[in-house]
Write a structure and sequence with these properties.
Blueprint: E1 2-6, H1 13-24, E2 27-30, H2 31-39, H3 43-67, E3 72-75, H4 86-92, E4 96-102, H5 105-113, H6 128-146, E5 151-154, H7 160-171
Parallel strand pairs: 1-3, 1-4, 2-3, 4-5
Length: 172
């Protein structure tokens, strides 16, 4: 079985993914890291050099590649489920369960405020209000994709350990 974690940036996909893979003794993949290692460039460099259309094409290709591996915990980029047929590919994968780590806008804003400089998508936002509005707009647009997940787990007021435990109890 593969476990695919979806959710907005700051929802805990990487943290939960690593912990989950350790407990289950599964391989852990972060799709963005996987793409960077395969392409030999950062995501930003891929966008600058080849453009977004190229990036979305290879993102889909590498998603398919990782989904074919057995016993994987895979963390996706926040936008990955929203492009092309990516979410369709995930939901139709016979050996995969998708989990949406649902996190409220105030919690996401609080987490992301601390990491703004390291996240190009939000680094230009000056105020907390702008950040909240940006997150809200994105979540509204993406909710139709995230909502197709096999399992939705609300992460608000839960530790990473609690979320991992809930995933394991629900899936196994």
């Amino acid at each position: 079985m593969n476990i695919v974690l979806v959710g907005y940036m700051g929802s805990g996909k990487s943290t939960i993914g690593r912990k989950l893979s350790e407990i289950l003794d599964f391989n852990y993949f972060d799709l963005d890291d996987y793409i960077q290692s395969k392409e030999g460039m950062t995501i930003s460099e891929i966008f600058k050099t080849n453009g977004e259309i190229y990036f979305r094409k290879i993102e889909s290709l590498y998603l398919k590649e990782v989904l074919e591996i057995q016993n994987v915990v895979l963390s996706l980029g926040g936008g990955t489920p929203c492009y092309g047929l990516n979410m369709d590919m995930i939901t139709k994968s016979k050996n995969s369960k998708s989990i949406y780590l649902k996190t409220s806008i105030p919690i996401l804003a609080k987490r992301l405020e601390k990491e703004k400089s390291g996240r190009p998508l939000i680094s230009h936002l000056k105020t907390e209000e702008q950040l909240i509005e940006f997150i809200g707009k994105h979540l509204f647009e993406r909710s139709v994709f995230y909502g197709q997940s096999d399992l939705i787990i609300n992460t608000d007021d839960k530790s990473a350990h609690d979320v991992v435990e809930e995933i394991i109890m629900t899936l196994f």
